[in-house]
Amino acid sequence: MGKKTLWQVFSAMPHRMFFALGTVLLVLPMLWWTHYLYERYFGELYQLSHPPIHAHVMLMVYGALSQFVLGFALTVFPRWLSTQDIRPISFKVLFLLNLAGFLIYSAGLWLGGWIPAIGSGLVYLSFSTATIILLKVLLNSQHPDKTQVWYTWVAFASASAGTLFFTVYLVLDEAVYYRLATGIGVYFFLPLLVLSIAYRMVPFFTSVVLEGYQVRRVKWVLRLWLLACLLKTILFVLGLKEFYFVSELGLLTGCLVQFYYWDFFRKKKVWLLKYLYISLAWLPISSLLFALFSLDAFFTGIQSYPLELASTHALLVGCISSLVFGMATRVSLGHSGRPLTTGKFEDLLFLLLQLTAFIRVGGELLRIYDPLWESYIGLSGVLWLVCFIVWGIKYFPIYFLPRIDGNPG
Asked: 237: alpha, beta or left, given left = phi > 0 and alpha = psi -120 to 50?
């Protein structure tokens, strides 16, 4: 067999294509957003086809962070369920739909008209098609226990609804559809997705590294997490944020119970494993901040926007982005035939990402008392860019290179 072309190598497995797109979307939209934050801070605003914060949600929630978990799911669903791999033509079409969708949507931010809706519609088509493909894998599998995989699929199905609502919002310019898209993406899709995947993978990874570790998963925790995420999404859409503390109680309870059975505080010498546990530690921090925000609103009747943003970014930057960093690093190493070990390069970048989250969350909390702290929010964007640009310099080329051990994939 002759030497494979660049496209053949790149399109050999789903994670290669979607991780590469995710890496680009982690950098370019954040470069624009950080520039926007500094322009806003100094009073220089520019007009887009719709509010910049709405574009930020679309590009980061349904764009950057989603590409990694989509590529991961298309790769591992058949392995989890002991079925045949997804046909290459299927994930290639999904990738091209996503690529075209985000390119057209991004251009439409400045060009306006129907262009943003066309781009968003292509992203919706990609997510909805992926949902159908993953459903077929589930239904065709004879695996005796598909519980966790069903929860992961439900999360993907919700992303289809979220991107559809965002597209409808762009067409009709009705705020309720943007609220639905944001609520589903931020409070249901991403949290349930990473929690359901962590439920399976964290104890598995830990058992590989720690001798004598016993894998223990509490099944009712998944149900509690799903109900809590659903309740929080409903409360957000209805504007009843002062009752968030109810949903946070469910999320926090599930975390504390499952963390206990995962032996969360057991010493872990391998940094690649530490990434996962440090990332997950941001989840109860986010829940506590959201609970504080809602109780403050409940008793005072005033919603603290900085406190709400601090809670949201503890979830999205502290927890989910850190988990994506850890997962992408591990998958990129393992599926390219490289040893599953990190060096100071990755470890320092991960710690830089934790500093980014700390500044982003802390900047919002301090802004409650002094508006000047808003300048530090832009600093978190700069640190984010340093982290993922440097990470991408090492890992982005891997997706275009054959496995170093000569195996296919």
From this structure: alpha
Region 6-400: CATH code: 1.20.210.10
Q: What is the mean pLDDT of residues 253-258?
A: 96
Dihedral angle sign, alpha carbons of residues 113, 94, 160, 129: positive
> For residue 47, what pLDDT is reported?
84
Q: How far apart are the first and last CA of the chain?
A: 15
How many Å separate Cα 88 from the centre of its chain?
24
Buried b (16+ CB within 10 A) or exposed e, 222-236: bebbbebbbbbbebb
For the chain, the domains span 6-400
Q: How confident is residue 46, by pLDDT bands cut at 50, 70 and 90?
A: confident
Measured CA to CA, the distance from residue 74 to residue 178 in angstroms comes to 28
If one counts every other C-beta atom within 10 angstroms of the C-beta of residue 135, the result is 15
To which residue do tokens 């999904």 refer? 94
If we measure between CA atoms, which residue out of 261, 315, 266, 311 comes closest to residue 290?
311
* Tokens (6 digits) for 222: 């998944």
Provide the percentage of residues in the chain whose pLDDT is more than 70.
100
Q: Where residue 83 falls among pLDDT bands split at 50, 70, 90?
A: very high
3-state percent helix, strand, coil for the chain, nearest multiple of 5: 80, 0, 20
Q: What is the pLDDT of residue 2?
A: 62
Other residues' Cβ atoms within 10 Å of the Cβ of residue 42: 9
Torsion of the alpha carbons at 211, 213, 214 and 216, rounded to the nearest 10: -150
H runs (alpha helix) in 173-243: 175-184, 190-209, 219-238
Residue 1 confidence (pLDDT) above 60: no
Taking the complete model, does pTM exceed 0.90, yes or no?
A: yes
Give the largest Cα separation in the chain, rounded. Answer: 71
